[in-house]
Design goal:
guanyl-nucleotide exchange factor activity; VPS9_dom_sf; ALS2 C-terminal like; VPS9; Glutathione S-transferase Yfyf (Class Pi), Chain A, domain 2; alpha+beta; Alsin
Length: about 650
Amino acid sequence: HLFICQALDEANLTRNLWKSLGHKFTDVLCVPERRLLEDSRNLALYPSTGRSDRVLLFNDILVLIQGNTFQSFDLKLTWVDAVWQWKLNQAVRQALSGKRDFPLWGEAGRGRDPPVCRFSSFTFQEEGRFKGATYEGEWRLSKPHGKGTLTWPDGRNYVGDFQEGMEHGFGICLIPRASEDRYDCYKCHWREGKMSGYGICEYGDEMVYKGYFKDNVRQGFGILENASDAEQPFKYSGHWENDKKHGYGVWDDKERGERYIGMWQEDQRHGPGLVLMQSGVCYQRTFHMDKMVGPGTLLLEDDSIFVGNFTRDLTFVGKGKLTFPNGFTLEGTFSSKSTHGLQTQGILDTSGEQDDTAEKLQLGQEVFPVEKRWEGLCSPFLEFIHSGGQGETEEAFMGFHVQTSKELRKSQEYLFCHRYHCKSIPNTSYSGIGANKHLLSMAQEEVKHTGLLRLALEVKGQPSAGGMEERYDLNGPALVLPIILPCFYPELSMLYMLYHQKEDDLYCQGIVDLSLFPDVKLLEFLEVQKRSLVKDRCFLSATECLQKLITTVDPREKLDILQKTYEEIEKTVNRVLEKEYSLPMDDLLPLLMYVVTRASIQHLGAEIHLIRDLMDPTNEGGMYDFLLTALESCYNFIQKEIRLRPSWQVLHNS
């Protein structure tokens, strides 16, 4: 009965209202299902409202009439703080639920205020970034808050998180290109309405950027790459400032087959830089606004070195010095004419001797201090750690692979977050064209960089302030290498193999020659002192153990394998002699030589030097150091001395 009475009252009030209002209002407001719930003319209002103002509360909208104009407010997007708050709140609640639970007024409706957070759509009319845009999604206190979608008439749209009326959190934004039927797609993190943090942008021209943003522009570390089938394919990995390449970065010109590693300013090469070519040629020069200036160092395919001025097509110009692989030098003034080729006026010095200066020459270390190379990667990580790795900071740093907070408390997983971004460094710099033996020292520095260790210590909750050097070994790779090295190992290992290629070639030839001996003859040839050890298929377990050296990347694990090999040799000796026997060095070296020969490990020199360079300094002088030195002695013996022994061929023939 109450429901019917109230419905009839509302219908009469609404009909009378339409009759009293002019056509200007009724043409817009008059909708069949709309009912008037309250008219401000029937209530006492605050004097500040003014006599000419009139407020109409309908079942779906709130209308404010001021003279000959009016404004309407969707009840689903209305939060109330007014004289008639209770009645209006009930109307809002009913509008949200879509139900007319009569009676509207009375005790039954008290205490049931509408929710603070709601879901609805709205088109913005006022000036601002959202003018003309339609928002559909979650609201809180009259502002977009939560998940939602913004769509502009010009085709722009944003889908993602909002906070206090602005894009905030993760979101995807599509922006149409004016002259093309294509879009720029931004998948990134937003902060107070602007792109900030890690993101991926897929541009309409098929370029892709993966990296950091700040205030809607590329800022910090990022990778920009276009399609492989583009007219001029390229890839840039490095630092950005105000949407331009700036600072240390690596540029791959895939069309020319060149890689530039060096400094940038305002999108141009500016400062010291290295250029690497597919042919193996590389040079170090200084650039000014994308042009080479001053003398440089050029390393040619045959290991000749030229120091002086030269053009981009490697033509010698002006004063310079050319050092040949055999040690001869030519110093003077160089010029090139199309009809006569390269000409020079200078002095040829033939007194020099052949050495490995060109082979071992390293580039980039002095001009690119390791702590300055990848600052854009370290700074976001430090911000993430200092913030506690919580909430939106966690997502903005890690990209889209968010782990639980419990997992993030573990030090290795914290550092894994950093590795997620820094794993592109070795591939960017030292793979492909960058697999050049003259960059080995640069790669070593980046692996052992104490800045990474400081980060790891901070992740473990240990302070990096003064005094840390006294309490912790900043050169100790035990903390960082197991986490960092797997990212670098393929490229780093290749650089070691290239750097020690000649020594390893000699070693491999020695292994081939020694493998012609049967076991007993080889043990005799190596002058094993205990003749009772000379038996077929001796030390098979030790040989199989040593072969595992190439199955791991961690220097500590490689040293463990070396120690287990030594233990297997001792076990075999004790078993054959049927007594405990401690091997002196005179007995160990020939037996280890036998095991090394039978293991036939390729690139053993590269493995030994990698272990030595990255070994924890605390192991120096200990058992690990002793065993590694013994392995080095075997390696050197096989590659050098084996060819000098006169008994070699005689024993082999016998």
